[in-house]
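User:
Care to share a sequence and structure tokens?

Assistant:
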Amino acid sequence: MYFQTGNERAFGTFPLKGTELETALESALDVGYRAIDTAQMYANEVDVGKVLARSDFNRSDVWITSKVPTSEFSAEAFIPSVEQSLKELQISALDVLLVHWPPGDDDVRPSLDWLQQAQQQGLAQHIGVSNYTPKQMRIAKAHCSSPLVINQVEFHPLLDQSLLLKTAKETGISLASYCSVARGKVFEFPLFDDIAKAHDVSAAQVVLRWILQQGVSINPMSTKRANQAANFDVLGFDLSDAEMVSIRALTTTGYRICNEDLVPWAPTWNAQ
């Protein structure tokens, strides 16, 4: 559902803040982005709100996603945190509201209940999750009465996420990618340059196109207008089946950015 909205290319805002974010976001909107990804943990919703408030776009023209961190997972804190996000973003409702991470005790149901409550109160049009394992996706699907439109996860050619892709098809919960170019690690592999030359595009565009062709939306971030434009301009070519397979072979690299060292609260990835 999310992927089919036409907002399969969102502008990611992490880790930007302040003037740097405002300048980058204004540039991204001018390039053509109409979807913005932020989160309470990013501490930049105020800055996003400033740009939205002074832009010439109608509210319906821009798709806004934000996320609630586990620190706000309680009956007392969840809804007020969303209301604070709306205040800082200067909007009346989010297009998509996500829970940012599964809770440490692995019981996702309470936070999903508060998520649905936020939607029922009109604080968000759609709801979804982030960093959910295949097992948690199935539990969420069975538990929620309202559709979950997205699971935002680390997704790039150096990490095998085939189990998540399979579960997305089973549950109808689409995937969205963060760290799409593995924070630059993909550029160490000549394959992307070789394929890029064949299509007269950049290596980054090849990576993003590979992700999109699997039905996974993207949230690239750049402060440079040229890179923003290139990241946005990834619909004008198609990778062949052979190219898709050759890139997929790199997923055996097993390069995960959000591992337990970086994110101590991360779930057991690929739990089924």
